[in-house]
Amino acid sequence: MHPLHNIIWKALTTRQGEFGECSDQACRFMPEVTSLAGFREPTPEGYSSLSGLPGAPGTIALFLDAPYEKRAGWELVASAALLQMVCEDGRAAPAARDARDPELIELIELGDADSPEMIELTALTKPGPFGKRTHELGTYLGIRRDGKLVAMAGERLKVPGHTEVSAVCTHPDHTGHGYARILMSEVMRRIRVRGERPFLHVREDNVRAIALYERLGFEARVKLHLAVLRKDPV
User: Fold this and answer.
1) In the chain, where does the domain assigned CATH 3.40.630.30 lie?
2) pLDDT digits (tens, 9 = 90+) for 142-159
3) Which of 57, 148, 181, 190 pairs as cysteine with 31 (C-beta 3.0–4.6 A)?
């Protein structure tokens, strides 16, 4: 079985168990970290186990191998087709500053103090679920302009041998400078230094982002289905 199969379950049962709550059939990240959740198998028992986790949030996000089918006790809030992409060969285009920007582009490591701005930026650009503690999952890098966080990228899901590049986003007023490529190249470099392979998830209809990721060496591995679910009121 591929090491990236059932990625959320695998992350929470290997490298990132400290950030989640698990039973023998299901796992979820702490709500303040992210809404991502998973199970051993997408069976009625898996969904029931997920619903019964202590303090389970009202809304969760699943990565499924097939489109979501209605399950008792759950309401489908949103869905989307995703591509899981992997950079198998480790190559990436070199980071470079934009020729129109005379300043050296400084990449800063983001932490607790930056969390409110990170949440604000992701709420605007919607790269995926992002909570006040998501940045604790790995290294997050950002670019500031006039003191304001305008672009960022970082690490989210981690399994043996692989780390996910995530939360790649740029403020709409600051696009066109290559910030996403610069940030991703550095995040990928750090992942490769650890002897790991970068991977990511992207909406299948995000053609512009997919083109960038392909230039950085990513290739589509499998199509997944995002399902955002809310527990039905009792």
Assistant:
1) 85-221
2) 999 999 999 999 999 999
3) 57
